[in-house]
Write a structure and sequence with these properties.
This protein has 309 residues and is an alpha/beta fold. The protein is built from 9 helices and 10 strands. It has 2 domains: 263 residues, P-loop containing nucleotide triphosphate hydrolases (Rossmann fold), CATH 3.40.50; 39 residues.
Length: 309
């Protein structure tokens, strides 16, 4: 099933599951006690982001607010173009917001200069990108060493730490291989090692299993879950895969530039096949409507062409 179909199916599953469960207040998870302010490692307050286009302003995020707690995994889902990656780019400092606040470790990073945030990010944030973004001319070990060297670590220390990290992600035998010599699963393992090189408190993952098959995707998610359990790292990720999202403590759905928070319950007893059948029927109806709309458009164009001739 392609990614957008998985996302549609996930939304159907979540909608049906949530009929029998209450909405969760922001910053809370069902079955857990309310956390103290010191447990909150990241907070977005009324974040807005828009892009200026020739046709006018395009609002992508409209007042997004949420909290991420220590040791928590938070998943963000939404249709393509809904603003998931834009939100992660704001958190990592790749892009800047128009309005609102982003607080990480009780510091308002949205007010920092580029240089201030670059230094701050080195010790607080790690990011796993959709396309891996390993440097092609550098070996696996050198890619993991890079953020350590940039942070001012000596080459000897960087080499030692990088080898330990590659050993941890079971990639030590591929340490001297270039990215093009690695499989997608191996590239993602190297990317994870690089992301945690400076022991970040928060790991930002942009669809970490998108380029992987189910088995490899499960391995990567187990590795991320191990980091949460052993290191207390907090994880915020985007995904199109309902099974990946189901691993999260909280799920945030982006709808029309805003977030709706839900909690998945009773995953084991839920009838996924029935939900898939429901989705297939609705997808077929949507495709039929699309074809009919295209047919009407073609017909109008032909009539216009005949009149002009």
């Amino acid at each position: 099933m392609c990614s957008w179909k998985k996302e549609k199916l996930f939304l159907l599953l979540l909608k049906k599951i949530s009929k029998n469960s209450a909405k969760i207040k922001l910053g809370l998870t069902l079955g857990q006690k309310e956390v103290s302010m010191s447990d909150i490692v990241l907070e977005c307050k009324d974040v807005f982001k828009q892009y200026e286009l020739r046709s006018g302003p395009l609002e992508v995020l409209k007042g997004v607010s949420f909290k991420l707690n220590q040791g928590e995994m938070l998943a963000i889902v939404g249709i393509s173009g809904s603003g998931k990656t834009t939100l992660l780019n704001l958190l990592y400092g790749i892009d800047t917001l128009n309005k609102g606040e982003i607080l990480i470790a009780d510091q308002e990073v949205s007010q920092m200069s580029n240089e201030e945030f670059r230094v701050f990010r080195q010790g607080h944030l790690g990011m796993i990108f959709q396309e891996f973004y390993l440097i092609p001319s550098m070996t696996a070990i050198e890619n993991v060493m890079a953020p350590l060297i940039i942070a001012g670590k000596s080459e000897k220390l960087a080499l030692t730490v990088a080898y330990r990290l590659l050993e941890r992600v079971e990639m030590i035998e591929m340490a001297n291989k270039l990215p093009h010599q690695l499989s997608n699963g191996q590239k993602q393992r190297v990317a994870i090692a690089r992301a945690i090189a400076n022991t970040p408190k928060i790991l930002i993952c942009d669809e970490p299993t998108r380029a992987l098959d189910t088995a490899l995707g499960d391995e990567i998610m187990e590795l991320i879950e191990e980091l949460i359990k052993k290191e207390g790292i907090s994880v915020i990720m985007t995904t199109h895969d309902p099974e990946v999202a189901a691993r999260a403590d909280k799920v945030l759905i982006i709808r029309n530039g805003q977030l709706v928070e839900e909690k998945i319950q009773d995953k084991e007893s839920f009838d996924f096949r029935s939900a898939q059948a429901i989705y297939k029927k609705s997808a077929e109806a949507a495709q039929k409507a699309k074809e009919e709309a295209q047919s009407v458009t073609v017909s109008k164009k032909r009539k216009k062409a005949n009149k002009s001739s």
